[in-house]
Amino acid sequence: MELGTTYLVLAGIFGLFMAWGIGANDVANAMATSVGARVLTIRRAVVIAAVFEFAGAVLAGGEVTATIRSGIVDSSLLADQPELLVFGMLASLLAAGTWLLIASLMGWPVSTTHSIVGAIVGFAVVGLGWHTVKWDEVGTIAVSWVASPLISGVVAYLMFRTVQSLILDRPDPFKNAKRFVPIYIFITGFVMSLMTLLKGLKHVGLDISTVQAYGLSALIGVVLMLIGKFFINRVPYDPDADREFHYASVERVFGVLMLMTACSMAFAHGSNDVANAVGPMAAVISVVHSGGDVSQQSELPSWILLLGGVGIVVGLLMLGKKVIATVGKEITQLTPSRGFACELSAASTVVFASGMGLPISTTHSLVGAVLGVGLARGIAALNLGVIRTIFMSWIVTLPAGGLLAVVFFWLLRLILG
Amino acid sequence: MKSYFSTIFGSSPIRPLQQHMEKVLECTQELAPLFAAVSDADFAAVAQAQERVARLEDEADALKKELRLRLPNSLFMPVDRRDLLELLRVQDKVANKAKDIAGLILGRQMQIPESMREDFRVFLQRCIDTVAQALQAVREMDELVETGFRGTEVDNVLNMIQQIDVIEKETDTMQVQLRRKLHALEPTLPPVDVMFLYKIIEWTGDLADLAQRVGSRLHLMLAK
C-alpha cells in the first residue's frame, strides 16, 4: 500500500481523538456515581478511574475490539479493494468523534458505542454494499443494547432488595451492615474477576482453566473482603450524624463497598469502551501491516489497547475531572447503599458483555440499574423522561453516526483514493 | 458538556415537603404568644403576633406552590404522586387554620373569659403539640425513602402516627370540657362573643384534627 504510513498516522490520530473523547466525557458517568455519593473525592475518583479504566482497557478490552474491528463488516469481501476498508474505518472514527463532539456541545444524549457502531454500519451499507455487513452479528449487538439496561436493572433491583431485607429494614441496620457488607464486597471481587478471567484475558497470553479461574476469583474476592472488613471495622458509630439522619453511619459502611464497586465500574467501562476508539484503528493497522490483505486475522497487537488506554486517561485528566465534578453534584440522591447496587450490576453487565465481545453502552446500563433501584422504592425522585433519551440514542445516534461516516468515507476516498 | 445520566434524578420532593411542614408548625406556634397577648389585653402585641402568623402562612403557601411545580407527571417516586400532593394540601390547611384563628381574634378584638384562660392555654398548647408530632412523622420521610418504605422504620413511623392520634384524642376531651365551661358562662357574656368563642375553640381543635389527617395521609403512603 503506497499510502500505508499516512493511513497509520491518520488511524492513530483519529483513534486517540476518540479515546480522548471517551475519557473526557464518558468516564464521568461511571465515576460520578461515587463522587455524588461522597465516597470519593474528585482527585481520588480520577486516580481510580485512570488506573482501572486503563486496566480494563488493556486486560479485558480485546473481545469488543475484535468485534468492532472485524465483526461488523465482512472484510473478506473486500480483498481486491483493501483501501475501502481503511477509508471506512477512518471515516467511522472521524464520524463518531465528530458526532460526539457536536452532541456533547449541544447537550444531547449520545452514546459512544452507538455512534461508532452506527458509523461502521453506515459506511458499510452505503459505501460497500448491504451484503458486506454481518447482519446476524449486528442483530446480536442490537439485542444486547436492549438487553443490557434491562438485565442491569433487574440485577440492581434484586440486589437492592437483598440490601433492604438483610440490612436496611432490620432493627439494627448498623450491625447488620457491618456483618453483610463484606459479603457484598466478596461478590464484587468474585464476579468481576471471574468474568475477566473467563473471557477477557486470552489475548494477554494468560491461559487459565475454568476451575483455576473460579479458584483465583474466589481468592481475589476473599482478599478484597478482608481488606474491606478492616476498613469497615474502623467505621465509627456516629450518634450525632444519626440523629439528623438515622442511617448516616450505615451509609458509611456502604461507602467502603462503594469504593470497590467504583473500581469495578471504571474497569468495566475501560473494557467495553476502549474498543470504540481502538477497534477501527486496529482494523486499519491490520490491513496496512499485512500489505493490503484484509482477510488475514492477525492477532491484535496489545500496544493498540495500551494506546487506547492512554488516550482515555489523558482525556480523563484533561477534561474528565471537571465533568465528573459536575455530574457528581447532580446525583447526590444516589447514596452508597444504592450507588453500590447500581455500580455493581452495571459493571457486571458491562464486563459480561465485554467478555462476549458485545459493544454496549455503559451509561445505559447504569440508567437501567438506577431505575431498578427506583422500582424497589429506593430513590426519592426519578425522571422517567430519561428513558426517552435512551430511545433517542438508538434512533438518532445510529443514523447520525452512519450518515456522517458516509460523508467522511466519500471525502476520504476523494482525497486519498 | 452535559451528561444525560444525571438528568435521571429528579429533584426530590421530600426535603421541600418537610420544610413546608416545619413552616406550618412555626406558624401554628405563633398562636401561643398571640393568646398570651390576648390574655394581657395587649392588642398591639396581638396585631404583631397576627402579622407573624400571616407572614409564616404566606411563606408556607409559597413553599407549597414551589413544591407543586417540582412534581411533573414524568417523576417516578416511591410514593404515589397524588398521596404526596394530598399530604401537602392537608399540611397547608393547618397553617390556613392558624391564620384564620389569628385573624378572627384580632378582627373582633376577642377576649377569653378569665376562668377559661388557663384551660384554653393548655388546650392550645396540646393542639400545637399534635402539629409538632405530625412534623416528627413527616421528618421520617428521608428514613422511609432510605429503607424503601419497608421494615422497622415503617413500624417507627406507625408508632409516631399512633402518638399523633393519642394527643389528638386528648385535645378532643379538652375541647369538650372547654365548651362545657363556656356553656356555663353563657348567661354572663354577650351572645355574639359566645358564638365566636365557640368558633375559636372549634378552630383550635381543628388544628389537632388536621395534624391527625397529616398522619393518616402518611399512613396511606406506608400501606402501599
Helix content of chain B: over 70%
CATH architecture descriptor name of chain B:
Up-down Bundle
Question: Residue-averaged pLDDT of chain A, rounded?
Answer: 89
| Proportion of helical residues of chain A | over 70%
**Biggest sheet statistics of chain A:** none
Total of helices of chain A: 14
Number of helices of chain B: 8
Which percent range describes the beta-strand content of chain B?
A: under 5%
N-end to C-end Cα span of chain A: 11 Å
Can you tell me the CATH superfamily of chain B? Phosphate transport system protein phou homolog 2, domain 2
Shape of chain A: elongated
Principal-axes shape call of chain B: elongated
Based on DSSP secondary structure assignment, what is the total number of beta strands of chain B? Answer: 1
How many beta-strand elements of chain A? 1
| Parts with pLDDT < 50 across at least 5 consecutive residues of chain B | none
What key phrases describe this protein's structure?
heterodimer; A: 417 residues; mainly alpha; 14 helices; 80% helix; 0% strand; elongated; B: 224 residues; Methane Monooxygenase Hydroxylase, Chain G, domain 1; 8 helices; 1% strand
Descriptive report:
- The complex is a heterodimer of chains A (417) and B (224).
- With 417 residues, chain A is mainly α.
- Chain A has one domain (4-416).
- Helix content of chain A is 80%, strand content 0%.
- Chain A contains 14 helices and 1 strand, in the order αααααααααααααβα.
- Chain A is elongated.
- Chain B is mainly α and 224 residues long.
- Chain B has a single domain (2-223), classed as Methane Monooxygenase Hydroxylase, Chain G, domain 1, CATH 1.20.58.
- Chain B has helices spanning 14-29, 31-39, 43-69, 81-107, 114-139, 141-146, 152-185, 191-223, and one strand spanning 75-76.
- In chain B, helix 1 (14-29) packs parallel to helix 4 (81-107).
- The termini of chain B are far apart.
- Chains A and B meet through helix 1, helix 6, helix 11, helix 13 and strand 1 of A and strand 1 and helix 6 of B.
